[in-house]
Amino acid sequence: MCFRVVAKPSFSRHEEAWEKQKMVPVGTFRRFATVEGGAIQKVLDGEIGTTEGGARMMQELMDEGVVGCETLTPMDLTGQIRRILEAGHVNAEIQDVIKCLRFDGMQTGLLCHQWQNPGKSISTPEQIRAKQDLQRHFNAIVESKDEKMGRLDPKFYRLAAARTGVEPHELIYVDSRAQHLEPAKAIGMAVVHSLKPESTVQELEELLQVPLRGFSWSEVSAEVNKAPSLSYT
To answer: Which is nearest to 93 in space by CA: 228, 207, 203, 173?
Structure first.
């Protein structure tokens, strides 16, 4: 089982306060993050860096005529994109699914552009702990940046399968971006297009024929902790 939908950028009150301070409509970053092929999505996919992302978003705001964009600079937007990425959160429902899968002895992997951001982190201690707790439930974490591979390259997904120790046709790949499902499907993986956590969990339960909800982790955590833990860098 391979995932890409575990860690998501966090749109918080801090970001809304920033938008109010800069006098742009609240929710601007959240809305532009959903634009297919837009600057923020390209940063999330690792196609461009945050500096180029800030410059491209500046142009996107100007092209749309967003109120207040004339008060911004590309560096303002670059800084805010970095804050949003650093303050990413882990979806609790998907995290529970991963714990269930590991408890059942299944292999799991995380595919991402970059799992640990270098340099000074602005993530809260709670966010850091959540990420560390999640990390130990993966057999492998494969970062496209380190591997110098594109997210649309089937070789990246073959590598992920090899790292988890199973054949591609034995894996289910879960992603919120439809375009990333195609190369995974091309090498034989089953795929799940994750649009909402609840529908994703339901589809996985149907595919695997195992329950992935309703567990009391206080009762099984001791058993889970007996499993060998792996560390990743």
So the answer is: 203
